[in-house]
Amino acid sequence: MAMMDPRVIGAHIRMRMPSLTPLELRVLENIIARADFSELTSIKEIASENGVSEAMIVKMAKKLEFNGFREFRANLVLYRQQDVSRLFNEIAPDDSMETLISKVFYNSVQALEETRAILDPRLLERSAELLFNAREILLFGVGGSAVICADLAHKFLRIGRHSTAVSDTHLMLMSASVCTHDSVVLSVSHSGRTVDVIESLKLARAQGARVITVTNYATSPIVQYSDIVLTSTSQGSMFLGENAAARVAMLNILDVLFVAVARRDLKHSEDNILKTQAAVLGKRVK
């Protein structure tokens, strides 16, 4: 029976949730919600409680890329022994301000710890190489992801590396249509299912561009139009997942890329940081 690194088990499960049917997802959520779930919990018991067949539970476990229910059970039990084991941590109406602070910060810390554990340094290195050698860098993202792209464009400008953050659907498609083999598109999509971004990536790749994608789900549709996929992870909370923790994790992934690109020509990067700092120095209150 294969046991995973305890730090990545929760992320492994969450990233594959989109591949489940609504019924399978309901069963999974019921399993996670069980406070008494242990190595003694049988597949027969789970099937009976949820009114489904044992075969369906095995199928669900395999969709989550476990060999079967026993392997899924053993890894989930191991994960729940860790400090970061709360897969869901919703806001409650009677939460005090101290509790809200704790939940928000905890979710961000958890997202950072688990994202760090699942990141592949080789993929980050390849991404940094593509970005450093690109003649054109396009950053695609809509909604909350657009803000993340704009942040990276700002950082790149500080080291003298020009990039364009595009969030308008028409401009995204137009930019993609004139990409070349020297273009690199970095897309940010939490769900990996944003149609506007997917269509633009498909068009950019048809023109020869290389595509790097940062997403929260390893099995999302956007993956098939990406050369490199960097996966973040955050708890599936309505308030704390997409709105906070996921953004923090993605910003840190892009910070790593920024630093990795900058260090490839450190002297040039340092010189440009000094220039850009000097350019706005007079705009600060003395």
Give an account of the 3D structure.
By secondary structure, the chain is of the alpha/beta class. It is built from 12 helices and 5 strands. α6 crosses α11 and α7 crosses α11. The longest helix has 22 residues. It is globular.
Which helices and strands appear, and what pairs or packs with what?
Layout: H1 6-15, H2 22-33, H3 43-50, H4 54-63, H5 69-79, H6 97-118, H7 121-133, E1 136-140, H8 144-158, E2 164-166, H9 169-177, E3 183-189, H10 195-206, E4 210-215, E5 228-231, H11 241-262, H12 266-280
Parallel strand pairs: 1-2, 1-3, 3-4, 4-5
Helix pairs in contact: 1-5, 1-6, 6-11, 7-11, 8-11, 9-10
Q: Count of DSSP E strands?
A: 5
Between the first and last Cα atoms, what is the distance in angstroms? Answer: 64 Å
Rg estimate, integer Å: 21 Å
- Helix vs. strand class: alpha/beta
Strand/helix succession = HHHHHHHEHEHEHEEHH
Major sheet size, sense and barrel closure: 5 strands, parallel
Helical residues, percent: 55-70%
